[in-house]
Amino acid sequence: MRPRPQARPRNLSGWWLLALAPAVLSAGEPAYPQGASSFQANCAVCHGPAGAGLPALAPPLLSNPARYAASAEGRRQLAMTLLYGLFGDITVDGKHYDFRMPDFARLDDATLAATLNFVVFDLGHAPVTVPPLSAADLIAERAKPADGAAVRAHRQGLVPAGT
Ligand code: HEC
User: Fold this and answer.
1) Residue-wise pLDDT tens digits, 8-24
2) What is the C-alpha separation between 47 and 40, in angstroms, rounded?
3) What is the pLDDT of residues 77-119, one digit of tens each?
4) CA of 15 to the centre of ligand 1 (A)
5) Cα of 102 to ligand 1 centre, how many Å?
6) What's the gap in Å between 57 CA and the centre of ligand 1?
7) Residues 112/138, Cβ–Cβ less than 8 Å
8) Which of 136, 134, 108 minimizes the C-alpha distance to 32?
9) Hey, which CATH number is domain 32-156, 1.10.3720.10, 3.40.190.10, 1.10.760.10, 2.40.420.20?
């Protein structure tokens, strides 16, 4: 009996490339490239290059910032944290941190907004329904001077105790 002619296998490599493209793009091309370079220059030393945090030094930025960006007070919290720093014990994803984040008020408003957008959208994957932060959000917060302890107090109103 003659063997059935084999169907010629289709070359699937093109499909694999298509399937991988979104992952490669999202890893390689941030939506906020200016924010990405500012993050690497200013934040990665403590929070890690991918925002995963460093144990006992600085918290991960992968959940709270995206959540904050969805509410008006949360957006204020993000702007405040960069402009005035953060001081005192906090709990993030069940882990305790008690250190001081320096302020970044010396950076311009557009750079700070881009840095936050990189954290919120590229690292935190906030949904596209969340509007990006803008320089105006930073300008509004510069008009209300605070310090790291006040920023922590404001944070307590946003994050349920112990989370
Ligand atoms: C010198 C280390 C250091 C650097 C640099 C740093 N951070 Fe932080 N960051 C911290 C620490 C420490 C905390 C927690 C502070 C505390 O314990 O009260 C923190 C907290 C935060 C929080 C609050 C998270 C939450 O759950 O409320 C955000 C947002 C944040 N950092 C963003 C940034 C961004 C963006 C940059 C860069 C512009 C940056 N940090 C640079 C150390 C740092």
Assistant:
1) 555 545 444 444 444 44
2) 10
3) 999 999 999 999 999 999 999 999 999 999 999 999 999 999 9
4) 41
5) 8
6) 9
7) yes
8) 134
9) 1.10.760.10
Query: What residue segments make up the domains of the chain, in order of their start?
Result: 32-156
Give the tens place of pLDDT for each residue, 115-143.
Answer: 999 999 999 999 999 999 999 999 999 99
Residues in the chain: 163
The residue behind tokens 């934040």 is 43
Q: Which residues line ligand 1 (CB under 6 A)?
A: 42-43, 45-47, 58-59, 61, 64-65, 78, 81-82, 86-88, 90, 92, 97-99, 101-102, 104, 115, 119, 152, 155
